[in-house]
Structures are given as structure tokens and as C-alpha cells.
Specification:
Shape: globular
Bound molecules: 2-phosphoglycolic acid, zinc ion
Helix content: 40-55%
Number of helices: 13
Order of helices and strands: EEEHHHHEEEHHEEEEHEHEHEHHEHEHE
Structural class: alpha/beta
């Protein structure tokens, strides 16, 4: 039974304010914080109400506490409904999706704690035994970096040959180190600068970045004796210019219409044997997604982030159109744990790979590590380096140690 709900303003990794929530029950305690995006999808719920985090702390905290005190923390779905009712808008703009999601996750953690259980086990049951492959962020461009960086937002890798979590996260960190060396050979002014998610920010073309990404995967993969595959988040909504109906690659001085973009992405996937490509088209272009998925979906994961915004109804449309074979799961895009789970469930029922994910602005909260394991997500996207990123990776190492028969996820 919930006895108190406390909200505080804390720092995120960009130095911006965000919310952290404590939920206190008579025999449990849960704490969770919400992250923030920079390349947010237009159909996401609104993170913060007008007036920002200060208003949440001064006014909204009391409203939520008075509603939730006396409720059972195990009734997460009911609590999520109450939060939606308190808000009263479709996009959670009155009290903020970051408020509701932090409360929702803190409630779940308090419920788990009352059984003396870690959250992943509370959500997934005693049989959970799979760990997610970490999708590590190696180089940053676009909205997560400065003006002379590549246009593609994220150059990622997946250590698909790793046999366990420890091997997987250290494979990613080895690639990160290798790429620093390789960038220095292409960009003599490179200062070691990093972007919002801890990847390097080189002043090189998209092609040059793709080349060294592939080279790093091969060389480190050979050294470690495991297969490591390159991946991308193109965050193409940020490149799309609706007036010109073109994707603008400023660093390369190239503009591509939708047809060119399909050819360009398909070519990258073929040339570099990409494992995973996220948001290769604008968030409204279901058709572009569907065309690409029909061409390469048998050998590459085509993932929707801004496309689906963790929304079950939008995912249902994507399933009907065969728009993608993977979906990014960011709880704060939809505003509650129960709605997040509903989207994961629909994805799994339709063989769409759910990829639980961080945001570019993060805290050291490690809840998403538990969600990935508890939901049985075969992959987690949470960077490779930086305190707020390793908070999740190190938690996964601890979870691996706790599981009786741990194994890496299956696709
Ligand atoms: P965001 O970006 O958190 O800035 O939205 C991450 C992503 O696009 O995956
Ligand atoms: Zn994305």
C-alpha cells in the first residue's frame, strides 16, 4: 500500500532538469527517473508540463500523492490509468509524460521490493534467463553532435557473437577505443570530443564514418574472436525537409528524395552488412519503411523509433503495412509502464523485435536494464561509454550474475 510519493528535480546528462520519483509503501521503496530526447518524435507524449520540472515539484507532486496514497503498488495498470485521468489530456501535457513514467516505474520498483525481488524478475517471472545484446553507440552526428559532424545521428555496433553480457559490453568498449584511433587517421584536428550519447564526434563524411565503423568491427572482431556487426540510427526525420521533399545531407552536400534514400540505405546495408538500421525515413513515411523492409528485411533489422514512438496503435498500423521488423521501446515516449508493456507484447506477438532504449539525455537510473530482461527484449540500446550509459550496462552484468542459467537473447 502506497504511503507517500515524492518528486524531486535532478540533473540529466546534458545538465538539464528532469524528475526523479520516490514511491514509499509500508514494506517497499521504489525510485525512478525519467530521461529526455533531443531528436524526439512528433507523436510522443509531452515530457514536461508548462512551467517544467519546478511546477511538478511545487504543485503536481501533491496532486499525484493524494490520488495514489492508499492504492496498492501492485495495481500498476490501475495506477497508470489514474495518472492518465489526473492528467486529462491525450498527450499527457498537463502533468507531463516524464512525470507519469517516473511514477509508474517507481511504483513497479516499490511493488517488486515488497516481494524482495529485483524488478526484472517481478516483471518477467522466475523463468527469465535471457540477456539483451547491447547496441553500443560509437560515433555521433546529427542532432546529438556539432555542426561539422556526420549527418547520420548514430553509428552503432552489436557484438552478435558475444557469449555473455560481460564479453558483449567489453567488445563494445574495445570498438569505441579502436574508433578513436581510426578517427585520428582521418581527422587530424580530432580532439576526442564526444556527443550526447558518449560516441565520438569526428569531422568526417558519412562515408568515411561508415568505412572506419566497418574496419573497427572487423579488426576488433578478429582480435576477440567474435562477430561484431555495424548498425545505424539515421534519425531521418531530422534530415527530412518537407518543403523540398528531400533528405538533406549537409556534411556531404547531397540531397536525396525518397527513392534516392531507399537506394542509399539499401546500398549501405548491402555494402557494410548492417545488422540494424533505425529510422531510415521520416516519421510519417510508412511507405518508405515498407519498401525498404520488403527489400532487405530478411537480412537486416529495420527499426522504427520516431516512426512508432512506443505507441501500440501506431505499431499496429506498421504491422499492417509491414513497415518494419523492429521497434524502439522508450517508456517516456508513451508515458507509462503498462502502455510500454502493451506495445512490447504486440510487437512480440507479431515477430517485431522490441529494442528497449535509453534517450540522449539520461540519468544514472538503470530501470531500462530491468525492463529489457523482464520483457525478454533481445537487444538493448544504451550507449557504450559515459556514467549514465554504463549505469545500465553494469546493472546487466549484475543481473547476469544473478540468473541461474543466463544466455544471450535470440532473434
Ligand atoms: P533522442 O535520440 O533520445 O534524442 O530522441 C535517441 C534516438 O533517436 O534513438
Ligand atoms: Zn532513434
Amino acid at each position: 500500500i502506497i504511503e507517500d510519493v515524492q518528486v524531486r528535480k535532478i540533473l540529466d546528462s546534458r545538465g538539464n532538469p528532469t524528475v526523479e520519483v520516490d514511491v514509499i509503501t509500508w514494506n517497499g521503496f521504489g525510485r525512478a527517473a525519467a530521461p529526455s530526447g533531443a531528436s524526439t518524435g512528433s507523436r510522443e507524449v509531452v515530457s514536461f508540463p508548462e512551467g517544467g520540472v519546478d511546477v511538478i515539484v511545487s504543485e503536481i507532486e501533491d496532486i499525484i500523492a493524494s490520488e495514489l496514497i492508499g492504492m496498492d503498488a501492485e495495481d500498476i495498470a490501475t495506477i497508470d490509468e489514474v495518472l492518465r485521468e489526473v492528467d486529462g489530456t491525450d498527450n499527457l501535457s498537463a502533468i507531463g509524460g516524464n512525470t507519469t513514467v517516473a511514477v509508474s516505474m517507481a511504483v513497479a520498483k516499490a511493488a517488486a521490493a515488497s516481494y524482495n525481488m529485483p524488478l526484472y524478475k517481478f516483471l518477467g517471472g522466475n523463468l527469465v534467463n535471457e540477456l539483451p545484446f547491447p547496441l553500443g553507440n560509437m560515433m555521433n552526428g546529427g542532432a546529438h553532435a556539432g555542426v561539422n559532424a556526420p549527418d547520420i545521428q548514430e553509428f552503432l555496433v552489436v557484438p552478435v557473437g558475444a557469449k555473455n553480457m560481460v564479453e558483449a559490453v567489453f567488445a563494445n568498449s574495445s570498438i569505441h577505443k579502436k574508433l578513436k584511433e581510426l578517427i585520428q587517421t582521418k581527422d587530424s584536428n580530432f580532439t576526442g570530443g564526444k556527443g550526447d550519447e558518449g560516441g565520438w564526434v569526428p569531422n568526417i563524411t558519412n562515408d568515411a564514418a561508415l568505412e572506419i565503423q566497418a574496419q573497427a568491427c572487423e579488426e576488433v572482431g578478429d582480435e576477440l574472436g567474435i562477430e561484431i556487426r555495424p548498425s545505424l540510427d539515421m534519425a531521418a526525420s531530422e534530415l527530412w525537409n518537407a518543403d523540398e521533399q528531400k533528405y538533406i545531407y549537409a556534411q556531404d552536400g547531397i540531397k536525396r528524395d525518397t527513392g534516392d534514400q531507399i537506394d542509399f540505405v539499401k546500398d549501405i546495408i548491402d555494402t557494410y552488412n548492417m545488422f540494424y538500421v533505425e529510422d531510415p525515413f521520416d516519421e510519417s513515411d510508412f511507405d518508405g519503411f515498407a519498401q525498404l523492409t520488403s527489400k532487405v528485411g530478411d537480412k537486416c533489422l529495420i527499426c522504427g523509433d520516431d516512426l512508432f514512438v512506443t505507441n501500440k496503435e501506431i505499431l499496429a498500423k506498421g504491422i499492417e503495412m509491414n513497415a518494419a521488423n523492429a521497434i524502439i521501446i522508450k517508456p517516456n515516449q508513451i508515458g507509462s509502464l503498462s502502455e510500454t508493456y502493451a506495445t512490447v507484447k504486440l510487437a512480440k506477438e507479431n515477430d517485431i523485435v522490441p529494442v528497449v532504449s535509453h534517450r540522449s539525455g539520461e540519468t544514472t537510473d538503470a530501470t531500462i536494464a530491468h525492463l529489457a530482461v523482464g520483457f525478454g527484449s533481445p537487444m538493448i540500446k544504451t550507449g557504450a561509454i559515459g556514467g549514465e550509459r554504463i549505469a545500465k550496462l553494469n546493472e546487466l552484468i549484475r543481473i547476469e550474475e544473478e540468473l541461474p542459467n543466463p544466455k544471450m537473447g535470440e532473434f
